[in-house]
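Record 1 of the preview.
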Amino acid sequence: MKDYYDSQETQSVEERELHLFSNLRDNLRQLRDKVPALQRQINDIDISTLTSREDLAQIPVVRKYELLNAQTQARQKMTDAKPGDEIERVFGGFSAVGWGQASRVFASPGPLFEPEVARTDYWRMARAMYAAGFRQHMLVHNCFSYHFTPAGSMFETAALAVGATVFPAGVGQTEMQVSVIQDLKPNAYAGTPSFLRIIIEKAEEIGADVSSIKHALFSAEAFPLSLQQWFKEKGVDGYQAYGTADLGLIAYETQAHDGLVIAEDIILEIVKPGTNDPVPDGEVGEVVVTTLNPDYPLLRFGTGDLSVMMAGQSPCGRTNRRIKGWMGRADQSVKVRGAMVHPDLVDKVVKRHMEIKRARLVVTGAMGKDELALFVETMGQPSEQLTQAIQESIKEFIKLRTDVVYKTAGEIKNDGLVIEDARSYE
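->
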């Protein structure tokens, strides 16, 4: 039994980057004229110049709320739809396929609509399953939902790609789940960790045997060490997969249980929340992903999730970089004194002053009595002149009265927060 799903998992960094950016350029050349949103995003950029992550950073990030707005506005405008209009009307111009080409369409909260094409392992989740020990001839009990959202299909198509058989269990009906597991004796489980725990506890309560499940791939929920240990004691080897309905697999856990290895067929960046700018390694920021999906080609798509790049290579032998996992939400926009304040406004203040090393806007006070302070770490000793200059920038960009509070080096946490809402709502 081989250790890796394919050779991509052990190729050199140089080979991987060359392969990713070659595929990216080919994709963009073929899709630019077919995908209106892609054309708008690239604008007048010369595709042939996109050879590195530094080149990629010149393209603006598209965030989830922009995708939602594009889809919503297109449906409102295009009331008299004709065949073929769904590429713009339903998907906001981000899809390359419409009805008849897409085998399914899903709806995530928003609603956001995502196409699925009948291609093997469309959501690219198979390598996460393989890393979790799923193999050919196994039976997988899939407890992700098959309705509206693509989670059920994501994990089913992955299981089929590794050569397994799937029981489409879906969610709910715990006693029926226990009964079917006892009868079919599946080898593996896909779903949330909390639901498998409920199933195991119900089986113990009624004296049923569900011990055939030895492997599990979890997603959509946190999987803390305490829960990992609980499953280990029950004989279940559990792993995490991090993905979204827009992108499919983003990163996955391996037998090293040391961070999440980035999926080999995407380009992942960590950027400063609310901006287009990649952060230095070790800084917490927003996860931004570029897919090479020819049917739904999302370019520099901001997930709204926070994470951080980990140093070094995984002990499991896979050579791609790792992220720590989900560390919170990057969309930190807040309403203060009736006005919306976004992270990009704070970033504009910071970029105006090269003396600022790190900054965080902190909102405090009781409901209706908002107070603002910009916490600042500087390269050197702050001066009254710098304070006045920062205040002028705050007045220009944030447009609300804000105190400037200087902090010592390292006092502002490296947790990706640009705006901290510390108000009391009692």
